[in-house]
Amino acid sequence: MRQLVKHRSLEFRRSKNATDIADLLENLTIDWCLHPGPVSVCELLLCDMDSTIIAQECVDELADLAG
Fold this sequence. Notes:
Number of strands: 2
Strand content: 5-15%
């Protein structure tokens, strides 16, 4: 594991077993996603909010639609 931006961004090197990473992240209070791709591509993206990766707050939009 390598810290890219202090308290903001982490990089995990690919584990031989993806469940190793999943087990590590399972106890954290964050949303995470594991992307099985080529080693040269980021496989895990952790964001504080969905607007980190897109222009709008999808969760807020869904809540508005649901009432």
